[in-house]
Amino acid sequence: MMFRRILDRIEEPPVESFRAGGDRFAWAEIHFEAARVDALDAPRRHAMALALYEAEVRPQRFHVQRRAELLIEMRRFTEAEALLTARTDLDRNEWLQRLMARVRLETGDPLNALAWIDRASSSLKAEHFRSEFLELRSEIRAALGDPLAIEDLVKARKASQKAGEAGRLEARLTRVASPE
């Protein structure tokens, strides 16, 4: 994978060398995304990303959103939820609402997760991300025992505009359609 090859060639500067918040955020993003590529190194990458996000003196709103997303991936749901609920724009930001739906689902509250993802989906402006919202909605509906949860997965596959994502969704549909 190209990202992995590039990452292997970049010399990582020591954390204390970062002077600007933007530098910290950029490296936090690199570590966050690298964790998705290399599962074996994910705990170390997650820890580095979190340290860099937390080292920002005045993080931008998006940076806080990404930190909450990282905390969800690290399964630190209480901390993620605290970041999300502290945001004054939670009631009008579909991305934060989507993250809140993930937190609620992961903490065993699929009914509230469904309310959050429905709210987020209804205000989504960027249609090229619709597939991500539908995929999460399908997971939530499945957790609720809804036999029609697959409908959202089918819609997610149809809405997908990224080859990798489309392939992953197609594989999920195949597994769901013919469980072993």
Polypeptide structure, described:
By secondary structure, the chain is an all-alpha fold. Helix content is 71%, strand content 0%. The protein has 10 helices and no strands. Helix 2 runs antiparallel to helix 3 (42-55), helix 4 (61-73) runs parallel beside helix 6 and helix 9 (149-159) runs antiparallel to helix 10 (163-177). The two termini are 31 Å apart. The mean pLDDT is 89.
Structure classification: mainly alpha
| Strand count | 0
Radius of gyration: 17 Å
Q: Please state roughly what percent of the residues sit in beta strands, choosing from under 5%, 5-15%, 15-25%, 25-35%, 35-45% or over 45%.
A: under 5%
* Shape call: globular
Mean pLDDT: 89
Level of helix content? over 70%
Compressed to H and E, one letter per element, the order equals: HHHHHHHHHH
Task: List the total number of helices.
Answer: 10
Distance between the termini: 31 Å
Sheet of most strands = none
Low-pLDDT regions: none
